[in-house]
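Notes taken during the Thursday session

The instructor put the following on the board and asked us to keep it in front of us for the whole hour. The protein is Fusaric acid resistance protein-like-domain-containing protein. We were told not to look anything up and to reason only from what is written here. First, the residues (1021 in total):
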Amino acid sequence: MPPSAPSWDSGPPPRPEAPFLFTDRQHNQNERDISHSEIRSHNRNEQEPFLNDFNTERPSPVARRATDWSYLWCRIRQFLTSDDGIGVFKCSLAYFLGSLATLVPAVSALLGPQEGKHIVATITVYFHPARSKGSMYKALVCACLAFLYAAFVSLTSMYVTIIFQRLHMIEMGHALVLILFIGVGFGLLGWTKQKMGDPLVNVACSLASLTSIIVLTKEGAVQRGDVSLDKVSQVLLMLLMGIGATVTVSFLVLPVSASKKLRSNLTLLNESAATMQSIITEAFLQRAEQDLQGRVFMSSSADLKKAHQQLDKLLQETRFEYYVAGTEKELIFEEQLVRWARDITHNLGALHSSALLAFETLRQPKFINYCSEPSEADSITPAPIDRPGEGLPTDASLPQLLDARILEEYSPASIPPVASAVTADKHKVPDQTLVAEIFDYFINQIGPSMRSLGHTLTNISAEALSTLAPDKKPFLDPRVHVALSRAIEEYQKAQVEVFSHLHQDKEKMHIQTPKGDACFDEAAAICAYFSHSLLKFSEQLKGLLSILHNLQAADDLPRKRSWKWMHFWHLHHPSSYNGRYLNPVSSGHSFMEEDIGQPMEMLEPLERQPRVRSIRLVIDCCIQRCRDFFGQDETKFAVKVGAGALLYALPSFVSFTRPFYLYWKGEWGLVSYMLVCSMTIGASNTTGYARFLGTLVGALCSITVWYVAGSNALGLACLGFFMATWTFYISLFKGQGPLGRFIMLTYNLSVLYTFSLSQSDGNNGPNKGKREGLDITKITLHRVGAVLSGCIWGIIITRSIWPISARRKLRTTLKIVWLRLGRIWESDPLTKRLTSPGASTLYMAPNEQLRTEDLLSDLESLRSSARYEFELNAPFPDATYGRIIQHTRSIVNALHALDLQLLSIGPPSPQEASILRHTQRERQTLSTHINHLLQVLTTSITLGRPPDNINIPKVRLARDQLLASLFIHHREEGSSGSILEDGYSLLYAYVLVNDQIINKMADIMADVGRLLTDVGGNITD
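Then, after some discussion, the predicted structure tokens were revealed:
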């Protein structure tokens, strides 16, 4: 006889909604909105005419055209008043000022009689003013360092050639300049660019290379072996003029505050998080998984991800603003807000993961699939077993293991322990139906309290949004903090009460079979698991209110400016922090709670070593460090950049090839080479293609503009402003930076250079007699040839010398992530709860979370670069890698959700300690199996072979053994209290998360096998 369904009518009635602040008002407002919308929809359906199209007058063509123009004007006005529109206008204005150095004779006279004055306008293209004040402060620091580096390289190279000129060894001097100042010097710029990984540092390196290339290869002083301070000063003055034009526009024309942008970003993040929390909670209560794929949820998720990615950048810019303003003491609040935003993002991912786990469990119950009646065990032929689980096939289900354990412990003395089989099909009951019914019964009891807490969180988040607004004085109603604390306390009480009543009502629900017990525990586990995640989210919001309260108190105090950061002789310890490792004020856990024993353990062996080391040990250590340094990708990239620059610049130092180099403007080809070179082949292909296209488009625009305006300065200035407007729109708004910049680079090299020739003195230099009849097509051809040659040379160097494949780095980073996850599983924090009850034990320490998040971000960027690595064997499987990264991120979110479960409970109770000791062997076995799967994945990617000898049912069997042990312990103890009180909540959550991770890893293995099969089993390119 199959187990009977629970009697839902015998349970207690649904509990009333808790009287939390803002809840009734919000709920009534929602009901009014819904009822009004339904009435309007109903009336519209009833009153809508049958022949609607015949009764409606169509607008005339003039009216439609007027409507289209009005809509277009609204879109244009909206863009012009937005941050992107203001940034485009400021960039165009800065370019206009930079072009005056070429077009206005009075300004042009300050730079002397040379034709390269278009460099000023080119500098404004790369060093643009569409930045915040904090970003511009940092850009100024980088530009000053670039100026000093360029001056050092230029002057030192000249003096080196002078020394060898006096020794009549000028060729040796040229060789040293090529090796030291071009090879090593430009290689150092490439190393700095990749090591820092900062866009502003990239701009500074570009400016330094541009200035140095002009002096070293074009001006000729280094080749002649003399010092030409006029040339050096002219080039450096152009650099300063371009930087000055950009800084002037940035600070004087509609300046942008980084601190306000940070507050706006935090407001967007908080709003998106509140929306996602509300949707996740309501979807969990209504079992509406499709809501998590809806347009509103996906849009909020995209906004949250975008805001989260900009946190570190905006915080750094804000730090510069506070330092310059002398208010660095107030920076601590911004740092705390950023740390809170990072924590709330992780906790929201954990909440999402717990909801997905609940939906997955309801579709396919994890605790039990089918279960036979104990009375039928007598009809099964008994088979002795040595220990629970032995004698069963590797694909045995949990009921078989569970029946074996139960019958071994509780069968009559005349009946030996048996491994029961599955009953006949007629006795099978759909488990998903039973679990879903019990889950609905749980939700019927705990749902009102959970929904009330969700509404309270939504309303308090809206209250916090007004406090975070950048243009408003921070003011937070003190009752909000009290209301949230009361709501959390009331929900915790309601949670304990509901679970206690549910377990007391278990007998009334006629759940008297192992299968019913398992389904009941499974439904209780997923509810408790989601409830813990929701509580941690609530506590994170409580931490935000504490930060805002402190911010409001500090804002009321008189502001004092100190500039103590300038007193570097007093700074024994940094007054601020690295924004990624802040100790928050109010958070679920602190960054200081990470396991500091590990680095101390690493240092202990070094402390025990003798102070005086042998010379051989010191030499070996230095050799190892050198090997590690030269084995890094950044060092390899620097070597090949320097080698390529040396070879490209070599013709400018050979008397036979120097005229050809100057005729085809080889210096701009070298500049293009320095801009194209990227770390990976895919990145170089991406920028190379954009620069190819930008060069061609810029050449066509140059010829068109010159034929339209000729040598008219006013016409060229207006057309240049228009060119800058749409190219900066492409660069800033559309994200096509290389394309827009190379259009303007080619335009400057062609149009502004031709104008300089047309205005140059007819008695000077090689341009004598060429003021009339200038051939813009020929000049543009030379520039296009130079730029394209530099692009091609950059791609050749990137692919021929130590090629760094984005595909290979993508696979390497995946292996690193999987190995980290394997090390995390080996840590076994559940066992540490027994050995170190008072210590904070987590799967992922806060710093580990950030490192893992950085690696996941690197995976996305490498995946984008790998799309442009064109191989002959097979196209890049972008969709497959996307699924692998998504599944890996899901595993990380599941681990973080389990960490929230660990943080939400106190020290282990005697009951929990007993459970942990009882299941220690099974947990270790399951952890070993999961770690083995991760190692198999890593080995498969390394060898380029599909994963083999994988037995996922064996891993699930280990999970079933853990569950069987847990159920047996539950029956032995005879516990009938709440799952929250007995200490089973943690172990049930552990089992659920493990099952979720096993499923994700099975998906990853399937994708990896498909990936290696599609490319013929060879991915070790």
